Amino acid sequence: MESANSGEDTESRVAFQGEPGAFSSEAGRKLLGERAVLVPCRSFDEMFEAAAGGDVDYCLAPIENSLFGSVYQNYDLLLHHGLRITAEVQLRIVHNLITPPGVALEEVRRVYSHPVALGQCRKFFAAHPELESAPAYDTAGSVKQVMESRERGAAAIASLGAAAEYGAQLLLEGIEDDPQNYTRFWLLAKPERAGEPDGQADKTSVVFALENRAGSLFRAMAVFALRDIDLLKIESRPLVGRPWEYSFYLDFLGHTAEPRVRAALGHLEEFAVDLRVLGCYRRAAEKG
């Protein structure tokens, strides 16, 4: 693969969580093209282990949803496995009611999907109190389950791609509560495979810890403010074994080769604990 930031077709193996037809697989196709070999994994742990162990070239991790917030587990797994961010992509999430062919809406009694997807369709369930929501481990997996079990009155909430993947029927389209529903994914690789960021990279992610003293976080933010560096997001995560202490994940605009970015990170390194650059990559389009 010449560059994960290029968006060109590639034959690299990319692990994702879920079954074929999951939103993660759609994001993988959008980012890498049709030639990428997408490898389904049962869990995020399995997906990260596949990339860290060299069984695949990359893994594609959802890191943030515009409605649900951050996927905290993947922040922790990223730090644990020491992978590098090479690219990101945003995907518009459209939830659909899907059934086996020939099933009518009035026949549906139970609807399966991932708990997050079910939670993003509360207005639909409120409008259809006769329907019972049932959690499943994956959106596309719920379609697979319904198609294989042929459970009477069963439906699933998933993507159009999942319906096509399993030969299911699209019963209702766009049943999510809010159409401004996007998920941001990171393409992750071992550092030696990730290589150096290309000249089109314009976003950097770092993680660091601070001593627990007054003004520490203010000083950390000031190193960027003093250099007019645009901060996009900050996320704190507990440090294991150190109660009430945290690591801070920070996304900002800028390339690590820029003098102002080098100066800011050098300044931060003077007082931060364990500063790491997680990746320098091309930011995703605002919506897509």
How does this structure look, described?
This protein has 288 residues and is α/β, with parallel strands linked by helices. It has 3 domains: 12-93 and 181-193, D-Maltodextrin-Binding Protein, domain 2, CATH 3.40.190; 96-172, 3-Layer(aba) Sandwich (D-Maltodextrin-Binding Protein, domain 2), CATH 3.40.190; 203-281, 2-Layer Sandwich (Alpha-Beta Plaits). It is 29% helix and 31% strand. The strands form 3 sheets. Strands 1, 2, 3, 4, 5 and 11 form a 6-stranded mixed β-sheet that branches. A 5-stranded mixed β-sheet has the order 8-7-9-6-10. A hairpin with a 7-residue loop joins strand 13 and strand 14 (246-253).
The parts where pLDDT drops under 50 for at least 5 residues are 1-9
- Output the CATH homologous superfamily of the largest domain: Periplasmic binding protein-like II
**SS summary, helix count:** 10
Total beta strand runs: 15
Instruction: From the alpha carbons, calculate the radius of gyration and give it in angstroms.
Output: 21 Å
Number of domains: 3
What do we call the CATH topology of the largest domain?
D-Maltodextrin-Binding Protein, domain 2
Label the structural class: alpha/beta
CATH class bucket of the largest domain = Alpha Beta
Sheet bearing the most strands, described?
Answer: 6 strands, mixed
Instruction: Provide the helix percentage.
Output: 25-40%
Can you tell me the CATH architecture of the largest domain? 3-Layer(aba) Sandwich
Task: Compute the separation of the termini in Å.
Answer: 23 Å
Shape: elongated
Mean pLDDT: 92
H and E string: EHEHEEHEEEHHEHEHEEHEHEEHE
% residues in beta strands: 25-35%
